C-alpha cells in the first residue's frame, strides 16, 4: 500500500476525542482505527498485537537476525484528533504539483489557504499536498505519524533481507485532550530502550525539549440577587472571574510568546452570576519558572479572596507532564541517529523546542527517553491543516535509516 492511500484511509475514520471524559478512550470511535491497524499489522505478519480496554494498541516485531545486540526501539503516535474542530466526515483532496499560490479549500464558503499567511507553503512547491475541504480538520495530527510508522513496518515486512532489531509499537488514545495514553502504558507490552514519537511538525523538525505543563481549574462563587435590590449584596462571579483573567500578565499568553517563553492560556470560561468556572494551561520550559507560575495562580486567588471574602475563588492545579530534556539529554545518541537518518533520506534536520506536549513527554518521565520526530504536518487543529505526500515518504525513509543505523 502506498503511504498516500494509507493516510487517506485513516483520516476518513472519525477519531475525535472529547473533553472532560468519563472513561478512556473518551470516544469509542477511536477504537475503529485501532481495529483497522490491528488488521493491517496482522497482514504484515505481526503476531504480538494487543488492543487494551483503554484503546491502547501495542505491537512488537522481533529482530530478524541472529545474535542481535541492537537496542529495542519504540515508535509511538496517537490515534485521536482534537475536539477543537470536527473530525467527522473529513473529505481530503490532493493538490497535485503545488504551484506556490493560494489554495481554495472551499469555493462555496470562500475558504482559502493563503500563501502569504502560511509562509511554509513555499517549502512544498512541486509537492502533492493533501488538504481539507475547509469544513473540518484533516487529522494529519497524528495520522501522518501513524501512516509513517505503519509504512516502515510494511517496508521491513517486504524486505526481510534488511536487518533490524526489535521494534515496539504504541498507538495511543486521547493525546489531544491531555489524557496521554502514555500515562497508562503497560511496560510489559511497551518497554523499549528508547522510543520516538512522530507528531505534528513540519519536515525536518526534531524536538527533545518541551514545556513543563499543568492545568488549573478555577472556580468563582458569587452571590445572586435581584439587580434592583443588589447594592452591597450582589457578588457577580462573572466579573470576579474576569478580574482574575485580567491579573494574568497580558504579555504571557500564547499569542505573545514563542520559543522558550512560557505562558498562561485560558481556554474555557463558563458560568453566571452565582458560579463561574475557568480552565487554564500553565506552561514553562524552566522548572523554577513553572513552579512560580503555578504559585501565581494561587496568589491571584488569595488576593481576590481577601477582596471579596473567603472561599470566593478556588484554584486546583494538576501537573500534566515535564520537560523531556531531563531524560533525553543524557542519551543524546538517539538524537544524532535521528539527524543522520533524515540527512540520508534527503532532507535537513533542525532542532526546535516543542511548545506543547506529546506522549513522548510522558514516556520520557516514565523512564523511556522519547524525543519527537516530525510527521510532516502543518496548521494542525484547524481547517487549514495539510501534509505533503513527499514529506511522508521521506520521513518513512528516515525511520528506516534510524532502525538500520542501530542494527549495524
The percent range for strand residues is: 15-25%
- First-to-last CA distance: 28 Å
Q: How are the strands of the largest sheet arranged?
A: 1-2-8-3-9-16-10-15
The average pLDDT score comes to 95
How would you sum up the global shape? globular
The computed structural class is alpha+beta
Main pleated-sheet profile: 8 strands, mixed
Helix content: 25-40%
Number of helical stretches of at least 4 residues:
9
What series of H and E elements makes up the topology? HHEEEEEEEHEEEEHEEHEHHEHEEEH
Tally the beta strands.
18
In angstroms, what is the radius of gyration? 23 Å
Low-confidence stretches: none
Which helices and strands, and how do they pair?
Blueprint: H1 3-11, H2 30-43, E1 48-51, E2 57-61, E3 73-78, E4 93-95, E5 103-106, E6 111-113, E7 129-131, H3 140-158, E8 167-172, E9 194-198, E10 205-207, E11 212-221, H4 237-246, E12 263-271, E13 275-284, H5 287-308, E14 313-321, H6 325-328, H7 333-344, E15 350-351, H8 359-365, E16 372-373, E17 377-378, E18 386-388, H9 389-406
Parallel strand pairs: 3-8, 3-9, 9-16, 10-15
Antiparallel strand pairs: 1-2, 2-8, 4-7, 5-6, 7-18, 10-16, 11-13, 11-14, 12-13, 17-18
Helix pairs in contact: 1-3, 3-9, 7-9
Amino acid at each position: 500500500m502506498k503511504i498516500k492511500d494509507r493516510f487517506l484511509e485513516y483520516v476518513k475514520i472519525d477519531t475525535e476525542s472529547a473533553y472532560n471524559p468519563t472513561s478512556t478512550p473518551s470516544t469509542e470511535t477511536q477504537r475503529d482505527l485501532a481495529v483497522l491497524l490491528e488488521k493491517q499489522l496482522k497482514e504484515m505478519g505481526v503476531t504480538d498485537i494487543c488492543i487494551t480496554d483503554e484503546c491502547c494498541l501495542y505491537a512488537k516485531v522481533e529482530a530478524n537476525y541472529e545474535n542481535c545486540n541492537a537496542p529495542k526501539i519504540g515508535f509511538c503516535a496517537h490515534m485521536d484528533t482534537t475536539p477543537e474542530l470536527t473530525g467527522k466526515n473529513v473529505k481530503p483532496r490532493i493538490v497535485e504539483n503545488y504551484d506556490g499560490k493560494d489554495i481554495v479549500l472551499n469555493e462555496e464558503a470562500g475558504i482559502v489557504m493563503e500563501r502569504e499567511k502560511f509562509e511554509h507553503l513555499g517549502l512544498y512547491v512541486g509537492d502533492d499536498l493533501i488538504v481539507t475541504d475547509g469544513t473540518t480538520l484533516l487529522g494529519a495530527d497524528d495520522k501522518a505519524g501513524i501512516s509513517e510508522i505503519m509504512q516502515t513496518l510494511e517496508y521491513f515486512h517486504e524486505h526481510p533481507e534488511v536487518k533490524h532489531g526489535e521494534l515496539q509499537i504504541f498507538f495511543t488514545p486521547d493525546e489531544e485532550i491531555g489524557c496521554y495514553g502514555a500515562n497508562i502504558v503497560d511496560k510489559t507490552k511497551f518497554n523499549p530502550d528508547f522510543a520516538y514519537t512522530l507528531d505534528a511538525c513540519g519536515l525536518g523538525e526534531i524536538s527533545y525539549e518541551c514545556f513543563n505543563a499543568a492545568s488549573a481549574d478555577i472556580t468563582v462563587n458569587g452571590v445572586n440577587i435581584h439587580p434592583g435590590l443588589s447594592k452591597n449584596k450582589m457578588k457577580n462571579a462573572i466579573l470576579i472571574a474576569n478580574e482574575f483573567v485580567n491579573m494574568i500578565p497580558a504579555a504571557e499568553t500564547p499569542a505573545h510568546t514563542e520559543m522558550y517563553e512560557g505562558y498562561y492560556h485560558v481556554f474555557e470560561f463558563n458560568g453566571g452570576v452565582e458560579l463561574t468556572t475557568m480552565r487554564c494551561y500553565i506552561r514553562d520550559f524552566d522548572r523554577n519558572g513553572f513552579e512560580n507560575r503555578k504559585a501565581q495562580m494561587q496568589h491571584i486567588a488569595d488576593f481576590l479572596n481577601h477582596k471579596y471574602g473567603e472561599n470566593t475563588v478556588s484554584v486546583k492545579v494538576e501537573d500534566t507532564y515535564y520537560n523531556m530534556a531531563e531524560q533525553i539529554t543524557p542519551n543524546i545518541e538517539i538524537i544524532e541517529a535521528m539527524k543522520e537518518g533524515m540527512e540520508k533520506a534527503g532532507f535537513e534536520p533542525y532542532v526546535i523546542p516543542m511548545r506543547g506536549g506529546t506522549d513522548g513527554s510522558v514516556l520520557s518521565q516514565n523512564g523511556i527517553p522519547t524525543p519527537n520526530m516530525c510527521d510532516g504536518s502543518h496548521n494542525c487543529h484547524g481547517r487549514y491543516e495539510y501534509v505533503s505526500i513527499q514529506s511522508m515518504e521521506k520521513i518513512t525513509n528516515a525511520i528506516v535509516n534510524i532502525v538500520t543505523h542501530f542494527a549495524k
